[in-house]
């Protein structure tokens, strides 16, 4: 049951320290990624990776694609519903990774079947043991988040992000032409602290008070760059899904090419930064601020954006990959508290189902 929590969503947000520990447990051995059923060399023949997914899992796939590319692995994230028109040439050296919490999403299953028919190899990254995706794919890798009841995906995004980060390191190790980035050791080492850091974000977040302050806005915008972009898109999806308020996520740099026309004092902008590659996000957020928009900086302390913003949701200053993941936890809390204040049916938003089994 929900236990002490008013909603499953809040319970699931708070279970992230445990979910993260489970996703990591036993999978980094002597500084190397190790997956029980996928021994070293499993991916030696892979030339390119296509991550196919929907919704939140698509945002986790954008996150994973970023990590694969920075590990020197050729990779794309493709919305599963768009697979057929956009996949391009596929053969047995293409690894199609179905990223799906439920393992039952029709669009995702259809994309993998299309890819398999064209000769691709497949891997399901899923939460549900024995799901259709797990059974149909050549291999399965479980994110071990435990059951998720709320329609809004929360802990499973975090578990997918960690699992895909580990997978990116394994692929880089298997592929002769891939070059793991110099800081991959630091990224894996920093994983040890991630569950505790998630705990401290949950304990210290100011998201509830902030959600109340911003409740009268007309639109909510979320911006970020690189990994921050995937978090911005996910932040906006979560917000619209459970509050029914208008929310959009953009790449920081895209704001000035159109969306800035919508920015007013009635449209708060959540600017996600990771401590890594965020000078430009600061500039873009400042442009929005000069149009009167309240800016909420979401990232580590001691950063120009945190100083320039009207409000700050603080995230531990760890490896940029995990900073991005923790920024997402802050945004989950913002959405949850805004929806709770608006008295929305948080665990079962209108028109939506936990798993979408129609195309
Ligand atoms: O089970 P899946 O991960 O394949 O589901 C994909 C989407 O339907 C899902 O993430 C959806 O976007 C969530 N309701 C978002 O919170």
Task: Give a structural overview.
The chain has 14 helices and twelve strands. The two termini are 31 Å apart. α3 runs antiparallel to α11 and α11 runs parallel beside α14. It is of the alpha/beta class. Bound molecules: 5-amino-5-deoxy-1-O-phosphono-D-mannitol (M6R). 5-amino-5-deoxy-1-O-phosphono-D-mannitol is lined by residues 54-57, 100-102, 105, 108, 151-153, 237, 241, 352, 355-356. The active site is at residue 354. Its EC number is 2.6.1.16. It is found in: Cytoplasm. Homodimer.
| Strand count | 12
Low-confidence stretches: none
Helix and strand pattern: HHEEEHEHEHEHEHHHHEHEEHEHEH
Helical content class? 40-55%
Euclidean distance between termini CA atoms = 31 Å
Assembly classification = single chain
Number of helices: 14
| Class derived from helix and strand content | alpha/beta
Mean pLDDT metric: 95
> Cofactors and ligands present?
5-amino-5-deoxy-1-O-phosphono-D-mannitol
**Strand composition percent:** 15-25%
The major pleated sheet works out as: 5 strands, parallel
Main sheet strand line-up: 4-3-5-6-7
Shape: globular
Alpha carbon gyration radius: 19 Å
Fill in the keyword field for this structure:
single chain, 359 residues, alpha/beta, five-stranded parallel β-sheet, 16% strand, globular, binds 5-amino-5-deoxy-1-O-phosphono-D-mannitol
SSE layout and pairing:
Blueprint: H1 8-14, H2 16-24, E1 28-29, E2 32-33, E3 48-53, H3 55-70, E4 74-79, H4 83-86, E5 94-100, H5 106-117, E6 121-126, H6 132-136, E7 139-142, H7 155-174, H8 184-191, H9 194-204, H10 207-213, E8 219-224, H11 227-243, E9 246-251, E10 269-272, H12 279-290, E11 295-299, H13 304-308, E12 311-314, H14 320-341
The structure holds 5-amino-5-deoxy-1-O-phosphono-D-mannitol.
